[in-house]
Amino acid sequence: MTSPKRVGRIEFGLFSPKEIRKMSVRKIIWADTYDDDGFPYPQGLMDLNLGVIDPGLRCKTCDQKAADCPGHFGHIELAKPVIHVGYTRLIRKLLRVTCRSCSRLLMTSEEVEKIIGPEDSELAGEFVSEKDIKKERVCPHCGEQQLKINFEKPTTFSEVFVEEGRKVEHKLTPADIRARLERIPDDDLRALGVNPDVARPEWTILTVLPVPPVTMRPSIILENGQRSEDDLTHKLVDIIRINQRFKENQDAGAPQLIIEDLWELLQYHVTTYLDNEVAGCPPARHRSGRPLKTLSQRLKGKEGRFRGSLSGKRVNFSARTVISPDPNLSIGEVGIPLAIANEMTLPIRVTQFNLEEMRQYVLNGPERPTTRSPCGANYAIRPDNRRMRLSDANLETVAEMIEPGWTVERQLKDNDIVLFNRQPSLHRMSIMAHRVVVMDGKTFRLNPAVCPPYNADFDGDEMNLHIPQTEEARAEAEILVSVSSNILSPRTGGPIIGGIHDHISGIFLLTHRIQHFTREGVLYLTQHLDLEHLPEPDRMDENGNPLWTNKQVFSLVLPDNLNMVFRASSCQNCETCKQEMCENDAFIRIVNGELVSGTIDKKGIGAFDGQILHRIIRQHGMKRAARFIDDVTKLSIRGIMLEGFSFGIDDEDLTKTEYGQIDEVLKGAISDVERRIKIYNEGQLEPMPGRTLEETLEMQIMQVLGKARDRTGEIAGRHLGMDNSAVVMAVSGARGSMLNLTQMAGCLGQQSVRGERIMRGYEDRTLPHFRRNDRGAEAHGFIANSYKSGLSPTEFFFHAIGGREGLVDTAVRTSQSGYLQRRMINALQDLKVAYDGTVRTTGGRIIQFRYGEDGTDPARSSYGAPVDVKGIVESVLKEEVK
Amino acid sequence: MGTSLDVRNHEMVPDHQIMDEEEVADLLATYHITLEQLPKIYHDDPAAKAIGGEVGNVIRIIRDSRTAGRAEAYRLVVKRPKK
C-alpha cells in the first residue's frame, strides 16, 4: 500500500494587482450582459472570453464547449482604490502600529527584539501585537508625533487630532491608506507576522477587481423566456456602473464633494459584493427586496460551500417518505411502497449464469402493476456504457440484445438490502440495513421494536432509504450494518432493540400469575410462531380437554437451554425476597428454556434493559436474538388482543371514600403549611444548619406538600388495581409511572421553577388573586386538583409556568448537545481501530495503544465488561448469585 | 519561591519513565511505526520535566485504568510550539 501523502505546509497570501491583471483574460468595461439578440456584449460581464454557459457556443479563450470550459477570470480597473472589507482589522492594526510619516514600526529594533526574541533563537516565533505599542507616541525613527486612528465600521478610517481644545477627525481616503501601507518596510512586516513576499499590506486596498468567470454566476432563463442574472452579476453591474460614472466625473473635473460621494458609493458596492452581511452597512437588495447572496454568503454557514456542498452532499439512489408501523414485519425488514420500488434500481452485471433472469427483468419492463408482479428493470447499460431507458417500445429488442458484459438496472424486489436512516443521526444505529418487502400504500413500514434505535415514532416522522449499488457495499451493509448486528448498543453494552409499549403490556398480561388456555387459545396465541408441536399440557379440565399455562406458552419462544434468574421491573425490592413465592410474581426463573415463575415485563424484553434478550444474544448470537424479538413481539400482541387494552377518562375515577380521603390529606397539608408559616412569622422557626430562615421554611413547605401529593397517589393507587390499564402500563414499565397516575387521579402537586416554589410575578405576590406576602400553598403554585378534576384558573397559570421551564430546558439542551456532537464528530471522524488494536489517524499516528485501554468493543460487551461472569455462573447454577 | 513541588508525588499523576534506546526500538517495531507517529508530550510538561525528559526521549506512562486495570502509554517528548 502506498503511504498517504502529507501536507507539508499551506501558504495563505493576497492577490497583488499585478497577479489579478495577469490571470485576467479580458478587461471588463460594460455594465451590460446580453444584447437584444441574446448575444453577450464584448467586454461586458458575460464576455465570451470569460467562459460559456450557453450550449452551442464556444469559449473564446480556451475554445471549449460549455460543458468543458472551466471559465476564466476578467478584471475591472477601479477609478480609485477601495478597501477590501475582509481586511479592515489588519489595516487598522497596521495603521496603528506604524508611523504616519515614515511608515516604520513604532518601535526601536531593541524593543522589537525583546518581543520576538533574538533572531534564530529557540524561542523565536512571537509577533509584535497592537498592544505592544504605546498610544500616541512619537516615532522613534523620524520623531513624528502619532495620532489616534479611529475605525468606524464598515470601512471608514480617520485620524483624530486636537485643535483649539477640540477633537477633530480627519478622514483618510483609501488612497491615503494605501500610500502608507506601501511604505511599510518588509522587515517590519515580518515582525508583525505578515509575510511580505505573498501578502504586501497595500494589496488589501483594491485597485483592480477580479471578475469571476461566468461559470460561477450563470444566468438562468425563466419560463417566459426572460433571462435572470445571478446575484453576483447584479452586483458587478452596479460596480461597473458607478466606476464608469466616477471616471467620467473625475475626467470632467467635478467638485471634490461629488468625487467623495461617488468614492463612497463605489466602496459600498465593492463591500457588499464581497460580503453583504457586514455590520454597519445596509445589505444590498434585489428588486424584490430580498438581500443579495454575494461572495461571503456563498461560503459561510450551514448552507455555504464548505458545510453545505463539500462536507455534505445530496445523493442519488435514495428515497424519503413517512413511516408507519407494521408489527407483522420482522425487525430486519422494511416495507417499501411499490411506487418507490419501481423507481429505484440496482445495477446487476449480466453474466452467462444470470442471462436468462436478466432477460426476463428486461422483458418485464419498467412498470410493475402490483406488489406480487415480478420485478422489472428501468435501464440497460451497454458494454460501451451507453444507458438505454427501457420502455414498452423497446423491451423486446433490448432483451434480445442483452449478453454478458451488459448491466441491467433492475427494480427493487423483496429481500434486497437497503440502508434505512432517520435524522438526526446521532449514533451508529441511526442507519441500519434492512431487507426489502415491497408493499402497497405510500409509507415506509417498520416493526415498532426498531423504533428506539432510530428514536422514531409515527406522528408524521419521515425516514430515508439508500440503496447500496455494489456487491461490496451490499456485503458490508449486511455484515456490519444489519439490524440484527446492531441489537446491542455500543453506548451501554445492552440491547437497544426490543419490546416497547404494547409489547410490554401484552407480555405482562400474558405471563402474569398463572392462567390456563385451551388448545384454541394456545393456537391463537402461537399462530405466528414456527412450531412443530405443542408441549405436554399442564393439566386437563373437567371435560378432559387439555389446558396449558401461560408460562408454557411464553416458554415456546425461548431457546431450549436458556437458564436465568432475575427480578422484573414490577419488583418491589422487598427486604427479604420471597423468590418464587413473590406475591407480585416478580421473581423470574427460567430453567432449561421453561419459564418457571415470574412475569415478563420491561426488564425481560424491553428495548433498553431486556435481560432475556441480552442473555440470548450472548449465548445464542444475534440471529437467534432477532428471531426471539420477532416471536416475542408477535406473541405479546396476540396476548394483549385476547382481552383488549384501552384507557379512558373513567379509568381515573375513584369512589367517594377516596375523594374524601384525598381532600382530607390536602386540607391537612395546607393547614400544616399555614401552621409552619405562623411559626415562622412569630420568629419561632429554628433554621436548619447552613440555611436562612426563609430557606428552611421553603424546604419544609416543599416537603410537606410533596408528601401530601404522594399520599394522594397512594390513596388513588389503593383503588386502582391491576384491572386498570394505566396501572398495568406503569407496573410493567411499558409507559408512564405511578406519578403520572397520581397526577391524573389524585393531585397535581407543587409546580416549580428551578426546583423552588413559584415566586416571580407581581410585587410581593405571584398573581393579583392573592394577598401581598401570602406564603400559603395555593399562592405559590401548589395544585390541589388533578388533571381529572380540572385546574382552577390560577392553578392553570402556575402549571403553564412550570411547563414552560421544561420546554425551555429541552430547547437549550438540544442546541447545546447538537453543537457538542458536531465538534466531537469533526475531532474523531477519521480515527479507526487498526488490526493490531491501536486507535490511529489516517496518517498512522497512534491515539490509543489499545482501544479503550482494554481493547473491548462495547457493542459486544456486557454492559461494558468483556465477560458477563454473573450471567454465565447463574445460567450454569440455575440459581441467583449475589 | 522556596519549596518546589514534585508533581510525581501527587496521587493523580501516573508513573512516568524515560525509555532507553533499546526499549524505544522495540516499541517502534511492535507497532510498526516511526517515532513521529507516537503521541506527543511537551518538553515543559510538569511530569516530563520532573523526570528530566528531553526533546526526542520517549516516556512510558503507566496508568491505572478503569477498563484494563493497568494501561501503558508512550509519548515522544517534543518542544512546545509557540502559540
UniProtKB/TrEMBL annotation, chain A:
Pfam families membership: RNA_pol_Rpb1_1 (PF04997), RNA_pol_Rpb1_2 (PF00623), RNA_pol_Rpb1_3 (PF04983), RNA_pol_Rpb1_4 (PF05000), RNA_pol_Rpb1_5 (PF04998)
Binding, Zn(2+) 1: 59, 62, 69, 72
GO biological process, one term: DNA-templated transcription
Gene3D superfamilies named in the record: 1.10.132.30, 2.40.40.20, 6.10.250.2940, 6.20.50.80, RNA polymerase ii, RNA polymerase II, clamp domain, RNA polymerase Rpb1, domain 3
Residues involved in Mg(2+) binding: 457, 459, 461
Location in or out of the cell: Cytoplasm
Matching CDD domains: RNAP_archeal_A
GO terms under cellular component: cytoplasm; DNA-directed RNA polymerase complex
Keywords assigned: Cytoplasm, DNA-binding, DNA-directed RNA polymerase, Magnesium, Metal-binding, Nucleotidyltransferase, Transcription, Transferase, Zinc
SUPFAM superfamilies the UniProt entry points to: beta and beta-prime subunits of DNA dependent RNA-polymerase
Textual note on the cofactor: Binds at least 2 Zn(2+) per subunit.
PANTHER family in the record: DNA-DIRECTED RNA POLYMERASE, DNA-DIRECTED RNA POLYMERASE III SUBUNIT RPC1
Protein name: DNA-directed RNA polymerase subunit Rpo1N
UniProtKB/TrEMBL annotation, chain B:
UniProt key word Cell cycle: no
Enzyme Commission numbers on file: 2.7.7.6
Gene Ontology annotations of biological process type: transcription by RNA polymerase II; transcription elongation by RNA polymerase I; tRNA transcription by RNA polymerase III
Localization per record: Cytoplasm
Family named by the database record: Belongs to the archaeal Rpo5/eukaryotic RPB5 RNA polymerase subunit family.
Organism the protein comes from: Methanoculleus chikugoensis
GO cellular component: cytoplasm; DNA-directed RNA polymerase complex
Name this protein carries in UniProt: DNA-directed RNA polymerase subunit Rpo5
Listed GO MF terms: DNA binding; DNA-directed RNA polymerase activity
Task of the protein: DNA-dependent RNA polymerase (RNAP) catalyzes the transcription of DNA into RNA using the four ribonucleoside triphosphates as substrates.
Top-level taxon of origin: Archaea
Reactions catalysed according to its record: RNA(n) + a ribonucleoside 5'-triphosphate = RNA(n+1) + diphosphate
One Pfam family hit: RNA_pol_Rpb5_C
SUBUNIT field: Part of the RNA polymerase complex.
Broad EC category: transferase
Entry keyword set: Cytoplasm, DNA-directed RNA polymerase, Nucleotidyltransferase, Transcription, Transferase
Segments forming domain RNA polymerase subunit H/Rpb5 C-terminal: 6-77
